[in-house]
Amino acid sequence: MNEFVSTENEGGGSFGAFFAQFPSIMWQRRWWLIIPAVLGIVGGLAAAFLLPTKYQSSAILLVQAPSLPADVIGSQPTEATEQRIEAIRQQIINRPALIGLIENNDLYASERESEPLSELIEGMRDSITLEPQSIEIGPGRQG
Asked: How far is CA 37 from CA 26, 32, 67, in A?
């Protein structure tokens, strides 16, 4: 029998021994590292080239309700706000603004080769949504 027993082996080894053997451990288990890395790279490249490019943007516009009473204004405050939102919508979806967005950002590059610009603009208009949300400002604070 072996009479000489190392004190390092009794305590489970030390970190120094682990780091000394780490390269050989990695070499023995190299396929456990290489295969997932290659699969991850191939999956990432496939996703980058196969998924369609989609542009999405959002913005918040604060439309402040008038602070005058309704009898002075002559219309309901909600009607005035809706009219202001509609005016903003018309500014956003007008043809020159959308053409500028398409050309400046090189949007719809492949579609521009096969479809007329007017169809692209109509599709872009259909994609634009304005969702009014009301925000109540507490008393004592002005918007």
From this structure: 14, 9, 62
User: Per the structure block, which two tokens stand in for 56?
Assistant: 């999405």
* 29/22 Cα distance (integer angstroms): 11
Q: What angle do CA 63, 67, 72 make, to 5 degrees?
A: 120
> In this structure, what is the dihedral angle of CA atoms 15, 16, 21, 27, given to the nearest 10 degrees?
70
| 1/57 Cα distance (integer angstroms) | 75
CA 65 to CA 143: how far, in whole Å? Answer: 9
Best mean pLDDT range from 33-42, 44-53, 86-95, 113-122:
33-42
- pLDDT (tens digit per residue) in 104-121: 888 888 888 888 888 888
